[in-house]
Amino acid sequence: MSSIEASGSAESIAAQPSAVAVSRRIRLDIAYDGTDFTGWARQPGLRTVQGVLEESLGKVLREPVQLTVAGRTDAGVHAEGQVAHFDTAADVDGDRLVHRMARFLPKDVRLKAARLAPPDFDARFSAVRRHYVYRLTTAPFGADPLRARWVVPCRAVEIEPMREASRKLLGLHDFAAFCRRREGATTVRELQRFDWEREGDALTAHVSADAFCWSMVRSLVGAVLAVGEGRRTPEWVGGLLAETARSSAVTVAPAHGLSLVSVDYPADDELAARNAATREMRTVPMTVDGCCGD
Asked: Which of 149, 73, 142 lies closest to 108, judged by CA?
């Protein structure tokens, strides 16, 4: 049986903790359709991914659960490869937890996997890079109804100028022009991938970085789309890196085209060093690493 740890009872998901409590760290792999959520982060009186997951996990495990996430996504943003963790003193059977959560969770959020993680694993601080995609369509009729919740209609565009503009942004830069200001938060990031694929009417942007500041991905996409439509030049996009504050000339692309597809982590024996390095770069009160809502 593939599991985190076999539970003491065939009927239970989490066994009672022993007299001497031993904290275990559980990694969760999560997917969700962000359309009807007010983002990831728990907010009083609002439906959020974190709130729904913590409530359901608490019912299944019969204990309070507090999740730490790789990237807080904004309202309307989706995830195919979100990662979170929580700590517990109970022995948790990962396979059974996934099975039970499938019955407790609403249809727009799924727990894909659960497993015991090393003590040094941190969904937020251990992350090496985060990968997003942004999906559009240039079809004259707009997005297909079955894909309309995660594909954004756009005008016909020239993709080569867009690729040229995207290349100008790669590397370690201050992306202040593309980020909403947050007090105490740095806007310096290393953009490791930004390229475009076209297949018929489908247009997809692939964006990867060590981390993203608030609204950065959608701003990058919006700026480059202006180049593809002929309203701006690749040089204009590159020049935005000289800005020291958010540029009013950059249009933020709609949230529903964006999805977090995966998060990269180092080998287990490198987790502690990665955590220390990330904390040194991103100290309180800086925002939690994310994409669209942090």
From this structure: 149
Give one DSSP letter per residue of 103-118, joined into a string: HHS-TTEEEEEEEEE-
pLDDT tens-digit profile of 218-241?
999 999 999 999 999 999 999 999
Q: How far is residue 78's CA from residue 73's CA, in Å, rounded to a whole number? A: 7
DSSP conformation letters of 100-153: HHHHHS-TTEEEEEEEEE-TT--TTTT--EEEEEEEEE--TT-S-TTTTTT-EE
Pairing of strands 78-88, 24-32: antiparallel
Provide the 8-state DSSP code for 76.
Answer: T
Q: Read off the pLDDT band of 289 (50, 70, 90).
A: very low
Residue with tokens 């807080």: 72
pLDDT (tens digit per residue) in 81-103:
999 999 999 899 999 999 999 99
Q: 161: alpha, beta or left, given left = phi > 0 and alpha = psi -120 to 50?
A: alpha
Is the pLDDT score of 17 beyond 80?
A: no
With a threshold of 0.85, does the pTM exceed it? yes
Q: Residue count of the chain, please give it.
A: 294
| Cα gap 207→195, rounded to integer Å | 7
Active site residues: 74
CA distance 94 to 28: 9
Interacting residues of 6 by C-beta distance below 8 A, sequence separation 6+: 91, 93
Nearest to 30 by CA among 259, 216, 212, 292: 259
Task: Return the pLDDT at 3.
Answer: 39
